[in-house]
Amino acid sequence: MAPSQKSSNRKDGKKPNRRDNRDRADQQIPQNPRRDGIVPTEAALNSIPEHFSSTNTDRDYTLGNPGPSTPIPTRTTSANHKVRPWSFFKVGRVLVIDWVEPHGQSPCETSRRLMSHHSQIRKTAFSEFRWFVVLATYAKHSLALAIHTYNKRAVPPHEPSEHFGFAFTGRAAPTWDQAGISEDVESQMLLPVRVLPDLNTDDLHPTSTMHYRKIYTIEHNVPLGPFGVVHPDYIDRLFAQASTTLRFNLPVPAAEDIATHATTSSAAQVDPARALALRNEYIASIRTFMERMVTQAAARQVEASHILLLEAAVLSLGGPLGQSEDPEAPLRRAALRAAEQFVRQRIEGNDK
């Protein structure tokens, strides 16, 4: 009995090969304009904000809503987001921007709060509305601190609380119980900074804080929206605390370079002489403490390399540091605790 003949789709009667199957599949599946090989859904395309055109769907943007780490989204409509003139970016300006970041590998709250998609290298990204406070302005960009709520915890776990300070609206800063933290954590935080919103209906969540060790770059050609300004009585505090924690020479702004609010009668100002006096007092107190610790380390016959390391730390205190006008302020106590911990770790490490 003759073997049965299999049907063939080729006109020449030959059996189709794998390449023919691939060619047929290419004809059936529409070409995808994205470089990462993922076809955007219709819902995703419709949810792109107005300041992102549909032709930019190959960019690594995640389309979603503000996550639980952001303050209450009151000024986040795309109509309010547009490219602002250079005069908008003044010290103390609080703005809102659709911020995009890559996902982290660890299961932190920023990595799981929004839907995401694959980027060109098969990693994921997310976007959220994020609040920023401008610290310094240059020709085409500004340096700023971000405002977070950290999933309504004010200070994230396993982070030093002396790097955080409240940003609040209203007449009084939130108390430790309103912010959902312990009284001990609040005592270690930096002093709060008051924000005046542009609209009376806008406010910040009681758990809104700024991480003074994280500084961001805001490009001036990015669409963003206004929220408010830092209260003029708190500009000096913001500037001193940022300079202290960052150990970074922030340019001292002139009066005309500081954002003002329509309801304030007095203009905000940073007094360079006062900032220098606070800085010198702070340096003197920390240097005295650490020199005493170096002497104790030498008396306990700690290795010479450790003593040199401690002496280098003392010399490094000549950097751009500052202090609050209150000698018992959390800023001063936090710095003393950090210096003490720095020294004791090296002394105890040598004893083991």
Automatic annotation (TrEMBL):
Region Disordered: start-end pairs: 1-78
Domain DUF6590: 87-238
Biased composition (Basic and acidic residues): 9-26
InterPro entries: DUF6590
Record's protein name: DUF6590 domain-containing protein
